[in-house]
Amino acid sequence: MLDDPRTVRVTGDETAAIHRRTADLHAEEEPERFADGQPVPEAYCWCNLTSGNGSRALWLLLLPFMVVNLAHWMRPPAERHSAAVRLYGVLVRLVALSLTVLLTAAACEVALDLTAWQCAGSARCAEERSWLGFLSAVEGGWWSQPGRRLALAALVPAALVGLLWYLSHRTWSAYEAQRPPRGGADGDGTPDRRLRPALGRPGFWYGRRLVARLRAAHTAAGFLTVAAAVGGAAARHDRQAAGPAREALGWALEGALLLGAVVVTWVVCRRGRSEKRLDHRIDRAAVSWLPGASLALLGLAVLYAGWSRPGWRSTGTLPGDTTFSVITLAQGVLVLSLAGVSLRLYRRAPHTRTVLHGLGGPAVAMLACALGGVMSGGVAQRVADWLDGPATPGTGQDPIGPPVLLSWQASVIPVLLILLLLPAGVLAVRTALTARRLAPVVEAEYEGERPDTVRTRRIAGARARAGLTDRAPVIVGIVSGATLLLGAGALAGAWASGTVPGRAFAGGHPFVESAAEAAQALGSWLIGFGFILFVTWGRRAYKDASARRTIGILWDVGTFWPRAAHPFAPPCYAERAVPDLAWRMSSWTGRTGGRLVISGHSQGSVLAAAAVWQLPAGTRRRVALLTYGSPLERLYGRWFPAYFGPGPLGALHRELHCWRNLWRRTDPIGGPVNLPAEGDKPEVDHRALRDPVVYGRTHQHPLPEPILGHGDYQADPVFAKERAVLLDRLPPALPLPAPGATAAPLPGQRGDGTPRGDGPGTDDGTGAGEEAQGGDGAQGSSGRSSG
Questions:
Q1: Pairing of the two strands 623-628 and 777-779
Q2: Of the candidates 24, 260, 45, 6, which has an alpha carbon nearest to the alpha carbon of residue 752?
Q3: 483 vs 365, 409, 475, 563, CA distance in Å?
Q4: Full-model pTM
């Protein structure tokens, strides 16, 4: 990024830090070196927050949680305290809660139903697996009773829930627990009595209270799900074969579990995010008592199930069909309700650039549910296939199989893939036609050059492929809509076909039955293959740094947002990176009186804008913003309109002294921010940069110049020119503070940028970005950014 092998860390740690060239380490004490106004570049590197050690690969297993968290931030813009806004947040948090219950239910299905109930209760299955011998009903040992087998197997899903709690708590302490210093003041240091853009509010990057509440609630929901699976089976048996005392005990346990579920739901719905001020409080009652009480109920359920019941035999399956059917139905109702609220919000302030007419959040929430279903169903199908031998799960002799609903869900996967072939083919044809149509446009832009058909075709093709990004919402909408309809069909089919394993499609026409069975078998393998692909990709990333960097690029977008819906999602790196940048910018300008340009590439431009929003007004007047390859409007503005839509970006344009955005038509990620001139402020967007810079061979460029697309904007001469213009437009450097004088007050977050000062003062520059191993980045005014 700094284009120099000799660099030194100025401030920060091995996770995220500010770097300079070694020769510029003490630039503030050597003003004579910079008398010509040459800026001092700094680089901010956050790559270890997203793609550091191998444990980041395990975050792939948390992908559904991350996706549903994104849905929270995709709501259409509205008034801050609107009832519809609060309802939107509640619905997303309930969808997130259902995913936790789904994950725990899947673990219970594998450990309790398939292994402890079906396989250990089957003489054939238990005989083929010696490690299950002590649980086998045939052996007649102490553990052979179904209740005791279930009680022992409950340790697996309970341990999974405990692991998720631990990871959430640990990552919060490591990434997000740093408190911004500002109290109940806005970004200008004054009381927050007016409506500021959300990213400029003091508490936006500090969600401690909500994350703690949600972590406690989701942990409790997981433990209660395990307790219901263990204690519910024993209670159903006691209602049929035991005396009134034990039956009453079973009813009491189930009533306590129901009460716990109501309390968990109330805690999730009760409170959303608090952004107006820093909220350091913790809801002790919920955080301290809720997980402990649910764990105690789990212990009681285990003791109750372990009670001796000599006449109890495990036959058939546990009632997993009912559990998964209720979860699926609840998710569908919640997503449809979320769609209704989103449409209501969108109609209040419609904008043509908002994706799917405001339905982006519900569509992404539906995808999160689909991912959760694929992962849970994939685990159940593969384990059932392993336990059931060579037969398709649930179809062999003495069958062992997952709930019928999972068979139906597996059968619709081939149908969904076939449906996707049509829009994929349409996009391929449209891209080819667009490339052909752009050929004369490309040649006209390089007027005076000798036409080269091959060269023109490559440039036009790069532009056409870059435009596919703008059609992504259509694909997301089609996938989400098809998933919702096919999921409803699978749910109806499961209810109509009963609960007998292997009989999901029985009773129909022989041809239909055989076709459905074939689809179920193919879908079973596909759903299992998808889960195995997840695991193998994560394992490769655990060992391979290059694969880990690829995952890090995915996390750049997915984990930029705070955990507002799901506490078990991967941690938000911006709650560390944004304060880092704002702290650096404010401390340096307050200490030196200098001025700076914060320069951001790709995701670094989003961090740079977020950090500038957090600056006090006095500091913001000394900062210019240079963005390039920026997804601020093209991706964030369309998908997250409440936070990066025309209103918030326009407010940032008015508050900044100057801002310039560079973009290319061949860039599949970056684009214009579409902010016109206002008063004395010129238009933010530069005209589209040529890519490649030179069409053919020249004396200065004897070899063909590459098509750069999203990378290496500094190679264009326009970059250095526009940076210099921004520096010249900033006000002159302030006199240095007198020795011993108090420095200017610091704001509430970290920063990066590249400044430049005049006269006897010192000049400095910093930028936000990721080094080459991290992907995208923002960099100092004269630094190099690699991505």
A1: unpaired
A2: 45
A3: 11, 10, 12, 25
A4: 0.85
Closest C-alpha among 533, 597, 536, 591 to residue 743: 591
**Which parts of 77-132 are beta strand (E)?**
none
Instruction: Give how far the C-alpha of residue 601 lies from the chain's centroid of Cα atoms, to the nearest Å.
Output: 20
Q: What does the pLDDT read at residue 136?
A: 72
Helix, strand, coil percent values for the chain (each to nearest 5)? 60, 5, 35
pLDDT confidence band for 113 (50 / 70 / 90): confident
Q: What is the CA radius of gyration of the chain?
A: 29
Q: What is the DSSP letter of 171?
A: H
- Rounded Cα–Cα distance for residues 407 and 519 (Å): 9
Given this model, what pLDDT does residue 188 score? 42
Structure token pair of residue 125: 């299955």
Q: Are 579 and 747 in contact (CB under 8 A)?
A: no
Angle made by CA atoms 359, 361, 365, in degrees to the nearest 5: 120
Give per-residue pLDDT as tens, 766-775.
Answer: 333 333 223 3
Q: Which amino acid is at 533?
A: L
**Average pLDDT rounded to a whole number, residues 288-296:** 90
Give, in order, the Cα–Cα distances in Å from 110 to each of 137, 237, 503, 701. 18, 21, 20, 63
- DSSP type of residue 133: G
Q: Which two tokens stand for residue 22?
A: 């070694």
**Residue whose C-alpha is closest to residue 609's, from 634, 583, 559, 644:** 644
Pick from 394-408, 464-478, 678-692: least confident? 394-408
Distance CA 571, CA 11 (A): 22
Closest listed residue to residue 712, CA positions, set 772, 661, 761: 772
DSSP sequence for 417-469: HHHHHHHHHHHHHHHHHHHHHHHHHHHHHTTTSPP-HHHHHHHHHHHHHHGGG
- 314-336 b/e (C-beta count within 10 Å ≥ 16 → b): beebbbbbebbbebbebbbebbe
Distance CA 434, CA 282 (A): 55
691-743 per-position pLDDT tens digit: 888 888 888 888 888 899 888 888 888 998 998 899 888 887 766 555 444 44
The stretch 79-98 carries a mean pLDDT of 88
Q: Buried b vs exposed e over 41-63: b needs ≥16 C-beta within 10 Å?
A: bbbbbbbbbbbbeeebbebbbbb
- Tally of CB atoms within 10 A around 90: 19
> In angstroms, what CA-CA distances link 620 with 278, 611, 647, 708?
21, 10, 19, 32
* Residues 6+ away with beta carbon under 8 Å from 380: 106, 109, 110, 114, 402, 403, 406
More confident residue, 657 or 542: 657
Structure tokens at 2: 């700094």
Work out the number of other CB atoms within 10 angstroms of the CB of residue 742: 8
Question: Which range scores top for mean pLDDT: 403-417, 671-685, 766-780?
Answer: 671-685
Token pair in block for residue 461: 């093709």
* Cβ atoms of residues 414 and 530 within 8 Å: no
Q: How far apart, in Å, are the Cα atoms of 545 and each of 51, 541, 634, 716, 787?
A: 8, 7, 30, 30, 15
**What is the average pLDDT across 333-342?**
95
Long-range CB contact pairs, 124-129, < 8 A, 24+: 124/397, 124/398, 125/387, 125/388, 125/398, 125/400, 128/389, 129/387
Please indicate whether residue 526 or residue 753 has the higher confidence score (pLDDT). Answer: 526
Q: Is the pLDDT of residue 598 over 90?
A: yes
